[in-house]
Amino acid sequence: LSIILAGGNWPQIVAIILLASLAFLIGLSLDYLMGRHGWYKLFLKLGFRNEIEKAQKRFHRHGLLAIFTTYWEINLASFTATAAGVLGYPYKQFALHSLPVLLFWNTAWAMLAYLGGPRILDFLAGQNVYAFIILAAWIIIVVVKHIFEESERR
After folding, report:
1. Across residues 119-127, what is the average pLDDT?
2. Between the CA of residue 6 and those of 62, 95, 111, 117, 144, what are the distances in Å?
């Protein structure tokens, strides 16, 4: 939303991207530390065992490519960061690889928001009911699929 409100003010847009990337890096560093120092067990107790295990396998198999392929969505990035900590990946390398990827994805999302500008605001204002219905249906499908997958594992 801040990108849309910035309009064509490019210095402000660049500042937003940089601050968002820095904030995400701080958050992902905390996830990394949780993985590194055993706090990931809290995630396991909260029911995220499958997500943590998938992230560990992905990071172990693909290494740094896992950072690029999961950082497009911050929740996936969180699991990847936690997995990097669990696997003992050196923090300095983790941070040095995370920052450019965060800058890339935040820039991509910012450009999408900038180009979609008024249409996104119209959608958020409720002027596009059909798109909202499609989005709601998609969310319901994802949640139901997740519930079925969890019940099959048990």
Report:
1. 66
2. 37, 28, 12, 10, 37
Token pair of 72 as six digits: 């497009």
Whole-structure pTM value? 0.69
Indicate left, alpha or beta for 52 from its phi (over 0: left) and psi (-120 to 50: alpha): alpha
Which amino acid makes up residue 27?
G
Cβ atoms within 10 A of the Cβ of 80, count? 28
- Concatenate the DSSP letters of all residues of 53-119 into one string: HHHHHHHHHHTHHHHHHHTTSHHHHHHHHHHHHHTT--HHHHHHHHHHHHHHHHHHHHHHHHHHHHH
